[in-house]
Amino acid sequence: MENKDISRRDFLRKASEGAVALGGAALVGSCASPSSPDGASSTKSASVNEGMEYRTNNHNGDKVSLLGYGCMRWQMKKDKDGKDIVDQDSVNELVDRALEGGVNYFDTSPAYLQGQSEKAAGIALSRHPRKSYFLATKLSNFSNFSEEASLKMYRNSFVQMQTDYFDYYLLHALGGGGYPQFVRRYEDNGLMDFLLKEREAGRIRQLGFSFHGNQESFDQFIALHDKYHWDFVQIQMNYVDWRHADGIRNVNAEYLYEELDKREIPIVVMEPLQGGRLSRVPEGIAAMMKGRDPERSIASWAFRFVGSYPRILTALSGMTYMEHLRENLDTFTGFVPLSKDDLEFLEEMATLMQEYPTVNCNDCKYCMPCPYGIDIPGIFRHYNDLVNEGKVAQKGTEKYRKLRREYLLSYNRAIPTLRQADHCIGCRHCVPECPQSIDIPSELHRIDSYVESLRRDTK
Q1: Lower Cβ count inside 10 Å, N or C end of the chain?
Q2: Are 310 and 36 in contact (CB under 8 A)?
Q3: How far apart are CA 439 and CA 432, in angstroms?
Q4: 3-state helix, strand, coil in the chain (%, to 5)
Q5: CA dihedral sign, ordered 431, 434, 436, 441
Q6: 47 vs 244: CA distance, rounded Å
Q7: Nearest CA to 276 among 212, 338, 324?
Q8: What is the C-alpha to C-alpha distance for residues 215 and 256, in angstroms, rounded to an integer?
Q9: Which residues contact 93 (CB under 8 A, 6 or more apart)?
Q10: Alpha-carbon distance values, 263 to 32, 59, 101, 228, 266 (Å)
Q11: Do residues 411 and 447 lie in contact, with contact meaning Cβ atoms separated by under 8 Å?
Q12: Full-model pTM
């Protein structure tokens, strides 16, 4: 793009043009080339075919499905005592269909789904031959990183997942607290020495880390490659964070990718959809995407972006429902990478999205439960969805009255009164738990101020 500074007037014009394009069925989508973004065919990627796309891990030869299953967003249900539990029947069905479709990488953590994800994954996957899938989990010792507590967590993961080895094991969410926190969590307590011995013994086949933080922290962790020989690294990568990360909560994925690529370290991608936001983009942007390629879903653009880079080993998707899984299988079966023109188009879309003041929440629910019962991710999700749909009520606009009423009604339907943003007292209990480093109380107060302004404007 020649000019990345775009005015709101230009945005509205482009969005309008896109909406017109969406209405015209005669437009032809772009033709993607089966080559890597630099124009050279990837030797690490299987050629375009009719089956699942696989990538070869250059460290050990694993043939890993380009679509990986992130086990953080499975369905929950209430048990007879009203407690939230994983819907195991749904998980079993999804895992069976994923394996049938060629997915063979499953990523979980002791911290996911209120501590229930590993057990649910273990139950579902243990029904299949162990060699038919790769297991990834993490040492999520955020609150208690004593040697005793960390070793207990590590050993419990084997029990929960019914296995005697892990294919991919991660130090979870390096970056929060910078390098000093890494030293406390993994070095001072002897955990790194222990994990290296576990790798030598084969109980960990590949050892790596997931990253959330600033560039200084990343540079320090990647410098440890000479000492620890990271087998892989998990980063947040999508077409918005490629060049538009805020530099505080996360680093531009373009920089992370290049640093890992030149060291030939395989990359696992998390948040290819930015917590689902890139499957629910603003209407004008969705119109332009559909105008460019009417046959493909909005979400498929984000997945094809990630898969177009040859160093990517797998891209994780937290597929809650069967329709999510089917759609993603369609994208990664007979996979077609993006062309250079497509990549430039997505950079333009990413630039336009910066006009939208959404909350950078990926719905991971690490902030939950709130001690005051506030539905933090639900509030952010409701707000983001209405912003993306162009349904935020702005005074002075023609539809203000209608949108004001719709916003208040939908807010009360989506979030019970006692769990709404106005109950936040600013205790900041949630802030250190957020991998995106969102100032959660500030965002809740901002949304509450907006809601209150709508409620008081009764004229």
Answers
A1: C
A2: yes
A3: 9
A4: 45, 15, 40
A5: negative
A6: 30
A7: 324
A8: 9
A9: 322
A10: 28, 12, 32, 13, 9
A11: no
A12: 0.77
Quick check: 324 and 213 in contact, CB under 8 A? no
Query: Which contiguous run of DSSP H or E holds residue 23?
Result: helix 8-23
Return the structure tokens found at 362: 């990926």
- Strand (E) or helix (H) holding 400: helix 400-414
Q: Could you tell me whether strands 54-56 and 63-65 are parallel, antiparallel, or unpaired per DSSP bridges?
A: antiparallel
- Cα–Cα distance list, 195 to 92, 118, 138, 398 (Å): 31, 19, 12, 61
Mean pLDDT by 10 residues, the chain (459 residues): 42 42 31 40 40 97 98 94 95 98 98 96 98 98 95 98 98 93 97 98 98 95 97 97 86 97 98 90 86 94 98 97 96 96 95 75 87 92 81 75 89 92 91 83 88 81
Residue type at 268 in one-letter notation: V
Distance of CA 34 to CAs 45, 46, 169, 254, 339, Å? 10, 10, 31, 21, 8
Return the structure tokens found at 142.
Answer: 């955020």
| Cα 269–Cα 275–Cα 280 angle in degrees, nearest 5 | 120
Residue 109 and residue 117 in contact, taking contact as beta carbons nearer than 8 Å: yes
Instruction: Report yes or no: 260 and 291 within 8 Å, Cβ to Cβ.
Output: no
Burial of residue 193 (CB within 10 Å: 0-12, 13-18, 19+) is exposed
